[in-house]
Design goal:
The chain is an alpha/beta fold and about 400 residues long. The protein has 2 domains: about 10-180 and about 345-395, Rossmann fold, CATH 3.40.50; about 185-340, Rossmann fold. Helices cover about 45% and strands about 15% of the residues.
């Protein structure tokens, strides 16, 4: 296991990871309830899972739950910079094959994906579909199905499906209501601001923040930035979302019209080159660029690197580029700032995301033979179960429709 972090033999690091897992697990009650229900039957008995996820304390709760349900797990990172080394050590100590380390190179990140696939997993669990794409290009023998965590990853898989090239069924976990309404909006909204603040230690109040994209992630970021006292402008290419941002009380502009006033720019669109040359040359000196999308493509970092007069690292994950007589700052190398600069989404929201993941994995194991090679929604019964079980774990009770109300709902 030479690929693993060199400190993996450090018992103190594994102990720290254990403490981190226990902390997250105590805040992810819905996972515990699933284990109480399925733990005895072990529905994943001897199933080989291949995971490509951000290796965080929340992810360790999913991995440990899968182990308890009988699975054999191999995992690599979904991002070269998002790994938490104490979690790597902890999982390794529990018999999980881990191919990841903090600040690994892009080459090592890709090697990690190949190492997972070399273990011939039966079900792939991905975040961004990088592993799904590699599996399709290098051979998918033995893979009966998979899941996908992100909007960007589902988009890639649907293109494969549309072209008739998808080789096994995949459940798009991101599209579950109990996932994207909470994880993307409340989770990424908070953790993105957390990442920016941890890297820069700047005051947010009074800053002009430009949020590029008003999907679930953009909405969450805009709301949290406003909560910190920022003046928030939203840019969009979708008319309905632009109207929604306007009705929500945000300034809505074209990005080219907002760049001269912005202090901090945050991309969250899933699209390539959202911030590019014509925007960067109009920015004022001191502008800060951050990305909350899964891939490091939203900010044209190649333009920055090839056209700057000088560049230097101010502090970890904060790089300054001197370009055209001004300074432009790039956070986390243009990679997902909430997982590089901070610790990713909070356990309370990841509990719902990973509950959907866990139940979808079980569903695939039981039903893959009758599932089409397509991107499937999370079955409604799973989505509803996760929402109701999450409420129970929070001690919240809700009303039920009476018989008269049910009759009325089903009449015309």
């Amino acid at each position: 296991m030479a690929f693993n972090n060199s400190r993996i033999g450090n018992s103190k690091l594994a102990e720290q990871g254990l403490n981190s897992w226990q902390w997250a697990n105590s805040r992810m009650g819905v996972i515990s309830r699933i284990l109480n229900e399925f733990g005895k039957t072990k529905p994943l008995n001897q199933t080989k899972l291949g995971l490509c996820l951000h290796i965080t304390k929340e992810t360790s709760v999913l991995v440990m739950a899968a182990l308890r349900l009988g699975a054999k797990v191999t995992i690599c990172s979904a991002n070269p910079l998002s790994v938490q080394d104490d979690i790597v050590a902890f999982l390794f100590s529990k018999g999980v094959s881990v191919f990841a380390r903090r600040d690994e190179t892009v080459k090592q990140y890709k090697e990690g994906i190949k190492e997972v696939l070399n273990r011939r997993p039966e079900v792939l669990v991905d975040d961004g579909s990088a592993m799904h794409i590699v599996a399709h290009s290098s051979g998918s023998e033995g893979i009966v199905g998979g899941t996908e965590e992100t909007t960007s990853g589902i988009r890639r898989l649907k293109i494969l499906e549309k072209r008739g090239k998808l080789k096994y069924p995949v459940i798009g976990v991101n599209d579950a209501l109990s996932k994207h309404l909470f994880d993307n909006k409340y989770g990424t909204g908070q953790s993105t601001m957390d990442g920016i603040i941890r890297i820069t230690n700047l005051l947010i109040a009074g800053k002009n923040i430009v949020v590029c994209g008003y999907g679930s992630v953009g909405k969450g970021i805009a709301i949290r930035a406003r909560g910190f006292g920022a003046i928030v402008t939203v840019t969009e290419t979708n008319a309905h979302r632009a109207l929604e941002a306007h009705m929500d009380g945000f300034i809505v502009k074209r990005l080219i019209d907002a760049v001269s006033e912005g202090d901090i720019f945050i991309t969250c669109t899933g699209q390539i080159h959202v911030i590019r040359k014509e925007h960067i040359i109009k920015m004022k000196s001191g502008s800060i660029l951050a990305n909350a999308g899964h891939f490091d493509i939203e900010i044209d970092t190649k333009y920055l690197k090839s056209n700057c007069d000088d560049r230097y690292l101010v502090r970890r994950y904060l790089e300054c580029f001197r370009i055209r007589g001004k300074r432009v700052y790039l956070l986390s190398s243009g990679r997902v700032v909430n997982l590089v600069g901070s610790e990713g989404n909070a356990p309370e929201v990841m509990a719902m995301s990973f509950a959907n993941q866990l139940l979808s994995i079980i569903y695939i194991c039981r039903n893959h033979r009758k599932m089409k090679r397509a991107v499937h929604d999370v079955p409604m019964e799973i989505d509803q179960y996760v929402a109701l079980t999450s409420l129970k774990s929070l001690g919240i009770k809700i009303d039920k429709l009476t018989d008269i109300q049910l009759k009325y709902s089903n009449s015309y």
